[in-house]
Design goal:
Layout (H helix, E strand, L loop, with lengths): L2 H49 L5 H29 L1 E3 L6 E3 L34 H5 L7
Antiparallel strand pairs: 1-2
Helix pairs in contact: 1-2
Length: about 140
């Protein structure tokens, strides 16, 4: 193998890492955008309800459906982000596992796959977001 072949191979490796890093940043940016939009939609729901408590429930339901759609997108993007990093998060115990495994090494639960329907299902606390966790935490157990 000549010197130029080695340089070419090294360049391909660097190019792949830069592309992967770019994909990670794009996913992070998309997740942040979706989280910010969810906060805005929650504010819109509050404003609409405050201004007119007899608001047509269909209007508020449409906003709630938009939030659920965005939450599903975030969940899928987080899965993709973790896959790019080379691991899967356990849905039961939140342990990091290699993306090669089908079951959690800590609790034995089945790890999600990108084609799973579970990946797009939402639990009650899925609306918590990294950037706005304190905002949403206020309505869970606090006394005003």
């Amino acid at each position: 193998m000549s010197f130029l072949d080695k340089v070419s191979d090294a360049g391909k490796g660097v190019s792949g890492k830069v592309q992967s890093y770019s994909e990670l940043n794009n996913l992070r940016r998309k997740i942040l955008y979706e989280e910010e939009r969810i906060v805005e939609i929650f504010a819109d729901i509050g404003k609409k309800y405050y201004k007119n408590q007899d608001e047509d429930p269909a209007v508020l339901r449409a906003l709630c459906d938009d939030i659920d759609t965005r939450r599903r997108r975030i969940k899928k993007m987080r899965f993709e982000l973790n896959t790019l990093r080379g691991y899967k998060m356990c849905p039961k115990c939140d342990a990091e596992n290699s993306d090669k495994y089908m079951f959690c090494g800590v609790c034995g639960a089945r790890l999600p796959d990108v084609d799973d329907e579970d990946l797009t299902s939402l639990e009650e606390n899925d609306y918590y977001t990294e950037s706005s966790n304190q905002f949403f935490h206020a309505d869970s157990n606090s006394n005003f």
